[in-house]
């Protein structure tokens, strides 16, 4: 079987969509500090069902349910260090088992930002008040476990801040495992306000970073980000949200979806080599993207 990096050089790849969105559509209330990671011990079969739906839709990559998993978060639920390690490994095993059912595809072990584990929305602000050294120390235990699971690639994703990117890039370099580095952005800057040119430069000299890009952002922000990301000399990955906004007061999504197969074609034409979706992007959307990218235009 081709490695992830081999496949990436050969053709455009389709990433999956919003795992949490799909779980909520299946009736799960994901409120709380663990978000979708809670189902790793509650109902892991439901996570498998979502991976199955995305692979059936044509996705080449499944991102694991470890995005918001953390030692602190699981400890708050009475789960100790060994239990947390087992659950992190389970997140990958669930996805691998589903991939093996299909006989194709790649598994990306999700490593979300510090702000996701804090469960206070700070992944959309960055600037946590922690140094690069402190962030590296915080990420290391989870990173070390997920790097040892046999996942095809680490999805270092939804990073809002250059400091956190530097911390994670140093771990990627140290452990020498394939990883992508994906920022959440607003306009042409990170959520913390740094220029994207500086953000992508972090990855340019690290061989183990096999792709750079953006996720969990508005679809309208993708094209300018692709142009900037290409200067890092890496394949580009994009998987934005639908474009709907979260209304905290009503607890509902508001607005219309802007995610479309036409935009996905534009992203591919602009140079993106991995295309998928994040929040509010479902299996139906991914099926359209997979179909479009498999046909010459």
From TrEMBL:
Positions of Zn(2+) binding:
216, 278-279
Q: Does the keyword Transferase apply?
A: yes
For the biological process aspect of GO, one term held by this record is: methylation
Looking up Pfam families in the UniProt record yields: S-methyl_trans
Taxonomic superkingdom: Bacteria
Q: Which GO terms describe its molecular function?
A: S-adenosylmethionine-homocysteine S-methyltransferase activity; zinc ion binding
Per UniProt, the keywords (alphabetical) are: Metal-binding, Methyltransferase, Transferase, Zinc
Name the EC number(s): 2.1.1.10
Which N-terminal stretch is annotated as signal sequence?
none
Judged by the first EC level, this protein's enzyme class is transferase
Checking InterPro entries in the record gives: BHMT-like, HCY_dom, HCY_dom_sf, Hcy_S-methyltransferase
In terms of SUPFAM superfamilies, this protein maps to: Homocysteine S-methyltransferase
Oxidoreductase found in the keyword field: no
- Cross-referenced Gene3D superfamilies: Homocysteine-binding-like domain
Membrane spanning stretches: none
Task: Give start and end of each Hcy-binding domain.
Answer: 1-293
Per its UniProt record, the required cofactor names are: Zn(2+)
The record's NCBIfam families line, in alphabetical order, gives:
PRK09485.1 (NF007020)
| Name recorded for this polypeptide | Homocysteine S-methyltransferase
Question: From which lineage does this chain's organism come?
Answer: Bacteria, Bacillati, Actinomycetota, Actinomycetes, Mycobacteriales
């Amino acid at each position: 079987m081709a490695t992830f990096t081999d496949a990436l050089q050969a053709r455009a790849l389709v990433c999956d969509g919003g795992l949490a969105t799909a779980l909520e559509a299946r009736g799960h209330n994901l409120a709380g500090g663990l978000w979708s990671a809670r189902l790793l011990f509650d109902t892991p079969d439901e996570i498998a069902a979502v991976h199955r739906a995305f692979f059936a839709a044509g996705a080449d990559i499944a991102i694991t349910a470890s995005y918001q998993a953390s030692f602190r978060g699981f400890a708050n639920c009475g789960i100790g260090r060994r239990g947390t390690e087992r659950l992190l490994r389970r997140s990958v095993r669930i996805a691998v088992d589903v991939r093996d059912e299909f006989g194709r595809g790649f598994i990306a072990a999700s490593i979300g930002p510090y702000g996701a584990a804090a469960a206070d929305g700070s992944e959309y602000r960055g600037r946590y008040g922690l140094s690069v050294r402190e962030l590296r120390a915080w990420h290391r235990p989870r990173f070390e476990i997920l790097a040892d699971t046999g996942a095809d690639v680490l999805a270092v994703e939804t990073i809002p801040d250059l400091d956190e990117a530097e911390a994670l890039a140093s771990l990627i370099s140290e452990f020498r495992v394939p990883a992508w580095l994906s920022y959440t952005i607003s306009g042409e800057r990170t959520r913390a306000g740094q220029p994207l040119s500086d953000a992508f430069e972090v990855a340019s000299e690290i061989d183990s970073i096999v792709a750079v890009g953006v996720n969990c952002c508005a679809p309208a922000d993708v094209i300018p980000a692709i142009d900037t990301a290409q200067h890092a000399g890496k394949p580009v990955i994009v998987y934005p949200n639908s474009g709907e906004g979260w209304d905290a007061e009503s607890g509902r999504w508001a607005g219309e979806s802007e995610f479309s197969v036409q935009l996905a074609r534009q992203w591919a034409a602009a140079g993106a080599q991995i295309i998928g979706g994040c929040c509010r992007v479902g299996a139906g959307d991914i099926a359209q993207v997979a179909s479009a990218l498999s046909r010459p235009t």
